[in-house]
Design goal:
heterotrimer; B: alpha/beta; 2 domains; two-stranded antiparallel ribbon; 5 helices; 37% helix; C: 170 residues; mainly alpha; Helicase, Ruva Protein, domain 3; 0% strand
């Protein structure tokens, strides 16, 4: 019942989405406001409709309706209810509905805004959203239907939405259960965050398309979508970080990022999105780079769609990828449509995307921002090529090759280092004009301080040249950025007679985007500490121990005590848990419990590390193997990951920074976009 | 990024051409790979290109340490992909051997085992454990399995006397009779 | 002084000699008796990818097949094969995909050459555009660059502007 109902509702929303798109275009072409209004309302209607379909799906998931193929694939009786709900996005079919639902949330939200000044954009924004929504709903309806049930026909079981002739519904006793890797709390929120980031980039894209189609290519569309992009970027970034944390906690390889094609597919839109957030400031303040911003917005969305296509159609195979799926050709059509239409529109409208002012100095902030864009694009080229090349190799030579971490690390390390350097220098430069002299004056103190730190590191921590260069750059970013806060606050203190804290908070509130951006820069530097630590200083050892035996690594001593293995029938898991004592230079630190969880329903192991985390390093112990009979011997793999905690600390600060920057300004009576322009034009250039 | 152009100017033609060529190339590449992924294994009716399977010592074919498909012209070939780490392969190992022993005297059918990404000691232990006697060898560099576009192990390919594939079995055989009935299709 | 130095020197030589002998003894003993340690195996496995799973390095891959491959590396190490030989063995048996990077041959050179080429192209393009922009803007403002002086803010300017802004925005 619920299955047919859910499917029916999906079908209705599909038709409504098509209507909305068609009505919007028709209304725009014939200048019929009522028709556009009707399209807008239809678009609004998709949200409650898809919500109802989603509710039906969740109902099926939590009530163990295993005759539904999707429910059978992702849940089992032993799973707790909250996991049954989150299993919604644990498989291809459900996660496509989840996409559609998120898409409906965003498009509804955007159609609800005040359109009076931008009414000519409205039909085209609706059209782009409607096409995208139609496509995703179409995939659910025609190819990956989460409501399809099992039918018994002549002794064979096959999944289908509608009853084949002479068939009876087949209900398995229990489901296969969610992949244990997806049961981790990090995994519960990592995909939605990532999808949120992906999906929300459709809005800036829709506005960009609308601007191109209508020919109204002033700054308006960028002002409208700027905050959108910031939120989208927040979700995407946070999704990536959560994915890293999840990998660190669950995948059991002592790292957080494996340069896997699917990870990179999610990372690429982040690169262009980040580049956009920087270069958009140039357009706002200097009227430059209209072409480029348009390209970046389109590229970001194209990479979202292209990356999703690569990973969901089975073109790329990876630990994250969905199994071979029938959506391939249909999705391919959509990708082609998106790319071709976008490129054609940009080329058609290129002449009217004119710039207003000129570049004045190679050291001006806009010039440095362009350099930043070049670096982000370079990383993108490396990533894109690394993902695409194995396909080329497979096609032309028939040989499969792996493009793995050594390639990416070698290629991107200098690029990331240059970005760090720019992060320190660019905020000190002025819009319009800077010279080496002014820049040098602004940065020499920070440079000296960073050099002192680096020398200290040389004598106390490491002689590794790469690491020292990295620490120097990180220190430079931290000092230069904190110095910016300090100078602004001091200036305000002098002028207003406020105390330090008041001055600081007012300063930051007055320009959320800039100081939010600086917080993000600081957080990036902190994250860089963690990345540098684990990349350069990670140590590992492995050994098989009998009870009472020890392994030594980097000053730590790990002593194997005992091991226990037991079943938890209720949850359908077998736990094997080792107890080890940890000493550092002879001093007892405590016990850790690396574990192996074996899930009966999916017949999969999960290796849960025992972790001891400090600001200096993480001790990360994995139970690799154990002797089932005697439980006397056990094999452990031990990593020492220096400084990695700074990565997570940086991530939290990052989150705070983006929220601070994206938070709506206090005064709601004024239209935010206009006000920020008025303000920005009078901005001090923050350089001396 | 022709920001300085004072008058309205379009994208230069050569840039347009480069962009479109790139885009079409990319889409074509992905499209071809996609269709390759979708088509699955080689299909019955396909002529199988020649390949050479090196053989483990003790599992030679007529005393030779490698076997070429083209040398087996006129014989029916049963090519089985397996691996020692593959649990489902164990289900069918005894059945394959039994079928082989059934056909061996006739000399019209050749059984070949292609050991897919495996280590030799384990592979030998596996062959010994199941008492396998037909020719077996490693699929060096996964060349043969890539040619057949196998999806996993076990998979078995039945190639007729003219070198044309006529049946594909994905997953383990359930009985000796199943193997025999497929072989019988092409035996006179 | 001289004497002390000589004594020290002797002592150092003695320890160095002792150390050499000990380590030598240790390594020879090791090479003969001990099977290679997990760490030695992992050091090589880390550079290889599991041939049947997607994008999983061999040292952290938990499947039974990977355990067998690690044992294979151990056997090969104890037979005295070098790291390069072992890697080559894996490539011959399981294809080039077991390497973390494509081998530097034939078409694979593209993977290493194309990104730097494109990046270089981008840099050249950007640099040339810069030159063009700055030149045309100088032509507009005229030589001498009076504007640049005013738009280059001094420290006082920074404070002054901030103050002005604070007044206006209160």
């Amino acid at each position: 019942m619920f299955a047919e109902f859910g499917y029916g509702v999906l079908l209705v929303s599909f038709i409504v989405a098509i209507y909305s798109g068609v009505a919007a275009v028709y209304g725009a072409v014939n200048k019929s406001a009522p028709l556009v209004e009707s399209a807008r309302r239809a678009m609004l209607l998709t949200f409650p409709l898809i919500s109802i379909a989603a509710a039906a799906l969740i109902y099926l998931l939590v009530t163990n309706r295993y005759e539904v193929a999707f429910v059978y694939e992702v849940t089992s009786r032993s799973m707790p209810t909250y996991l049954k709900i989150t299993a919604w996005w644990g498989g291809q079919a459900g996660s496509l509905v989840f996409w559609s639902w998120l898409l409906a949330v965003f498009t509804s939200a955007v159609t609800l805004r005040k359109w009076d000044r931008d009414i000519e954009f409205l039909p085209w924004v609706i059209m782009v959203s409607a096409i995208t929504l139609t496509f995703f709903l179409g995939m659910s309806i025609f190819f990956e239907n989460p409501f399809a049930r099992f039918w018994l026909v002549d002794g064979n079981v096959l999944p289908s939405m509608f009853a084949p002739a002479n068939a009876t519904v087949f209900t398995p006793q229990d489901g296969q259960g969610l992949n244990p890797l997806l049961r981790h709390p990090g995994m519960v929120i990592h995909p939605p965050m990532l999808y949120l980031g992906f999906v929300s980039f459709v809005i800036p894209y829709a506005f960009a398309m609308a601007a191109l189609i209508t020919g109204r290519t002033d700054d308006r569309w960028i002002r409208i979508t700027r905050r959108w992009s910031l939120w989208a970027w927040l979700f995407l970034s946070f999704g990536l970080v959560l994915g890293g944390r999840w990998a660190y906690d669950v995948l059991g390889w002592g790292g957080y990022w494996g340069w896997d094609p699917v990870e990179i597919a999610a990372f690429m839109p982040w690169l262009t999105g980040t580049a956009f957030l920087h270069s958009v400031m140039i357009q706002e303040k200097r009227g430059l780079l209209k072409h480029w911003n348009m390209i970046l917005v389109i590229l970001t969305y194209a990479l979202v769609i292209f990356g999703t296509f690569l990973t969901r159609s089975g073109v790329l195979s990876s630990v994250h990828a969905f199994a071979n799926s029938p959506i391939g050709p249909f999705f391919m059509g959509f990708v082609t449509l998106t790319l071709v239409a976008s490129v054609a529109l940009v080329i058609w409208r290129w002449p009217i995307l004119r710039s207003e002012t000129e570049m004045k100095s190679m050291l001006s902030r806009e010039a440095l921002f362009l350099l930043n864009n070049l670096l982000f694009m370079s990383i993108l080229v490396v990533c894109f090529w690394g993902v695409i090349f194995p396909l080329i190799s497979e096609l032309f030579t028939g040989a499969k090759v792996t493009v793995g971490p050594p390639f990416y690390e070698r290629a991107t390390a200098p690029l990331f280092s240059s970005l760090l350097f720019l992060m320190a220098v660019a905020p000190l430069s002025a819009w319009g004009h800077s010279t080496l002299q002014t820049l040098g004056k602004a940065i020499w103190k920070s440079t000296v301080a960073a050099l002192v730190v680096t020398v200290a590191f040389y004598f106390t921590y490491t002689q590794n040249i790469g690491a020292l260069v990295g620490f120097f750059l990180i220190a430079l970013v931290l000092f230069a950025t904190v110095h910016e806060f300090w100078r602004g606050t001091r200036a305000r203190q002098k002028a207003q007679g406020e105390n330090f804290l008041t001055a600081l908070s007012r300063l930051m509130e007055r320009n959320r985007r800039r100081y939010g951006g600086y917080i993000i820069h600081i957080s990036m530097a902190l994250m860089a500490i963690g990345i540098l630590g684990i990349e350069i200083f990670q140590k590992e050892t492995q050994g098989t121990l009998a009870a009472g035996e020890q392994l030594n690594i980097a000053g730590y001593t790990v002593e194997y005590r005992e091991l226990a293995s037991w079943d938890n029938q209720g949850e359908g898991v077998n736990y094997t848990r080792a107890v080890v004592d940890v000493y550092e230079n002879g001093i007892y630190l405590g016990q850790l419990n690396p574990r192996i969880d074996y899930y009966f329903d999916s017949q999969q192991n999960m290796t849960i590390p025992g972790q001891r985390s400090t600001l200096r390093d993480d001790l990360y112990i994995l139970l690799v193997d154990w002797q089932p009979v005697s439980t006397i011997g056990a094999t452990f793999k031990i990593y020492v990951n220096p400084l990695v905690n700074w990565l997570w600390i940086g991530s939290l600060l990052f989150l705070a920074g983006v929220i601070f920057a994206a938070w709506p300004d206090r005064d709601p009576s004024e239209e935010p976009a206009r006000r920020s322009v008025a303000r920005d034009s009078r901005q001090p250039s923050a350089a001396d | 990024m022709t920001e300085t152009t004072p008058q309205k100017r379009g994208v230069p033609l050569w840039v347009q051409i480069v962009i479109w060529v790139f885009l079409v190339g990319l889409l074509a590449l992905v499209g071809v790979i996609l269709s390759k992924r979708q088509q699955g294994t080689v299909q019955p009716g396909d002529k199988i290109p020649d390949f050479t399977l090196p053989l483990f010592s003790g599992y030679e074919y007529e005393g030779k340490s490698e076997v070429k498909l083209s040398d087996l012209q006129g014989k029916l070939v049963v090519l089985n992909f397996w691996a020692s780490w593959c649990k489902p392969c164990e289900q069918e190992a005894a059945e394959l051997e039994e079928a082989w022993e059934f056909y061996e005297p006739g000399g019209e059918v050749v059984f070949l085992g292609a050991d897919y990404v495996d280590t030799e000691p384990e592979a030998r232990a596996y062959l010994k454990k199941f008492g396998i006697t037909y020719s077996n060898g490693p699929d060096m560099g996964t060349k043969i399995s890539q040619m057949f576009r196998i999806r996993g192990v076990p998979e078995t390919y039945f190639i007729d006397q003219n070198g044309v594939l006529y049946y594909v079995k994905i997953g383990p055989f359930l009985s000796v009779d199943e193997i025999k009935s497929i072989v019988a299709q092409k035996l006179p | 002084m001289n004497f002390a130095f000589g004594k020290n020197y002797l002592r150092i030589t003695f320890y160095a000699l002792l150390f050499t002998i000990l380590t030598f003894a240790a390594t020879t003993v090791f090479a003969q008796d001990d099977t290679p340690t997990d760490d030695e195996v992992n050091a090589i496995a880390k550079q290889l990818y599991c041939p049947v799973c997607e994008n999983t390095p061999l040292d952290v891959c938990p499947t039974e097949a990977c355990r067998q491959w690690r044992e294979l590396i151990r056997t090969q190490l104890s037979q005295g094969m070098t790291e390069a030989e072992i890697k080559q063995y894996f490539v011959d048996n399981y294809g080039a995909r077991v390497l973390a990077e494509p081998p530097r041959t034939g078409l694979n050179w593209l993977v290493y050459l194309l990104p730097p080429a494109i990046i270089l192209l981008g840099a050249v393009f950007l640099f040339r555009s810069f030159r063009e922009w700055t030149r045309s803007s100088q032509a507009e403002t005229g030589p001498g660059g009076e504007r640049s002086e005013t738009s280059s803010p001094s420290k006082d300017d920074y404070v002054a502007r901030l103050e002005e802004e604070l007044k206006n925005r209160k």
